[in-house]
Amino acid sequence: MIHCGICGKAKTADVQFICCHCINGSPAVLLRDKMNLLILRQEVEQLKTAVEDQLETGFAGEGQLGRQLQKLDIYNEKRRLIKLRQRLQLARNKVQLKRNKYNELLQIMSTNGYLEESTSATDSIDLEEQAAEESASLDTLSHILARNQKQLFAELCRWFRIRKSDEDDVFSYTIWGLPMVNLKNGSELDPSIMVSSMRYLQQYLQLAFRIWLFKAICDKPIENDRNIIENFTQLIYDTLDILRARKLVSKSVSIRDILIRYDLDGMIYHLSQNKYLSSLDDASNSYPPTMQNIKQLVMSMIPSI
Question: For residues 197 and 179, what is the distance between their CA atoms, to the nearest angstrom?
Fold first, then answer.
C-alpha cells in the first residue's frame, strides 16, 4: 500500500504519490513541481526550435533534405517534358498523315476528271482546314515544350549554384560553392576538390542534355584524379556538343580559340546564362571538335601532366 509522503493518505497505484491537498498546502512541494514543469517546457521549446531550424535549413536547399527534394522536382519535371515531347511527336505524325492523305486525294482528283469540281473543291477546303488546325496544335505544343525547357534549365542552374566569383582571380566561377575546374589552373586545386568539381560538372551536363536534347551522355563516373586528361576531354566534348545544339557557338567554331578565350569554366558559365560565345571560326574544318583533337589540346594546355 502506497501512502502520501506528507499526510499518510493511502493510494493503491504503484507510483510515487503525493495527494492534491498536500501539494496545494505544501509550498516546497508545489514549488519543486512547478520548477520541474518550467524546466520541461523550456526543454520542449529548445527541441522545437532545433527541429524547426533543421527543417528550414533542409527545405532551403542547404541540407540533404533540400537537395533530395530539388533533385526530385527536376526528375519529375523531366518526366513531364518527355511526355510532352511524345505528344508533340504524335501530333507531328498526325499532321504528316493528313498531308499525305491530302496529297493523295489531290493526285486522284487530277487523274480522274469525272469528279465534280464542287466536290473536289469542298474536300480540298476540308483537308486544308484540318491541316491548319493540326499545324496550330503542333505550334502550341512546341511553344509549351520550349517554355518548360527554359524554366527547368533555369531551375537546374540555380540548383547547382553556378556563379561568377569576383574575389578569386585564379578560379573565376564556382559550382556548388566549389571552384570550377579549368585547364589553365586546374593543377593548383587539391585533388579531392578537383574530382568533386568535375563530378558536379558531369552531373550538370547530364541533366542539361536530357532537358534540351532528350538523350543521355557518357555516364562513366569520375572517381579519382588519375585520368585528368580523359575527364577534361569528356567534359569539354559534352559542353561543346550542347553549346552547338543550343546555337551558342558557331557551327565551325575553332576549339583551340574557344578554349583559350573561355576555358572549360567559362564555357559552362555562358551555357548557364544562355550567352553566345564569340570565337574564331575554323572555316576549313581542319580541326573538328572530335574527342581525339580535344584530347590533344588538353594535353598541350596542361603542361604539368
Answer: 7
